[in-house]
Amino acid sequence: MDYIKDLFKFGDLYNHEETDPLFIRAVKKNINFHRMHCKEYSKILNAKNYNPKDIRKISDLYKIPPIPTLYLKKHTMKSIADKKMLIKATSSGTKGKKSHIGFDGKALYYGFHMVMATAGYHKLLSPKPTNYIMLGYEPNKSNHTVVSKTALGATFFAPALKREYALKYIKGEYRLDIKGLKKALI
To answer: In total, how many domains does the chain have?
Structure first.
């Protein structure tokens, strides 16, 4: 049974009584996949004596060993080959080191489905064109951060007339564009 598919197909987003068991099974399936395909992750789980049988309900999720972001900044962990990662992104690297993440087709499909279901449920989708003021980074080819990719994605909930970014990429660096923001607001 594909618990991940069942979870994402479920119509009522906030019906935890029925979705929590599906969520738990999907989490355990994902952990098992990564354990089988990533030697480093398997070592972490084994070192912390992780046992999937210990995860029966939402309140058991704390038993899944966390991976600190600092660890991910210093170690590469991959469960799929680079060539299968359709989108690659990084953390912002504010302290000098970046962690890396990749998404395959299945992850992108389910992620898109989740975003659209949530946006539809909360009535965030609109056919009416709008202006966006983005309090973040203007996209460019050298910026691979997750935050810039998700911010850009949020501007597709309604057709964009214009996207005004607080942080503009000018001459190889990001600069705060107060004038552009003021103009967009007036």
So the answer is: 2
Asked whether the beta carbons of 35 and 45 are under 8 A apart, the reply is yes
Q: What's the angle, vertex CA 65, arms to CA 108 and CA 35, rounded to 5?
A: 55
- Report pTM: 0.79
Statement to judge: residues 117 and 179 lie in one domain? no
Mean pLDDT, the chain, whole residue set: 91
- If you write DSSP's letter for every residue of 102-117 in order, what string do you get? EE-HHHHHHHHHHHHH
CA distance 74 to 97: 8
Claim to verify: residue 105 and residue 19 sit in the same structural domain: yes
- Say whether both 103 and 136 belong to one domain: no
Query: Pick the residue with more confidence: 1 or 152?
Result: 152
Q: Are 114 and 153 contained in the same domain? A: no
Contact 106, 135 (CB under 8 A): no
**176-183 average pLDDT score:** 95
Looking at the chain, how many residues does it have? 186
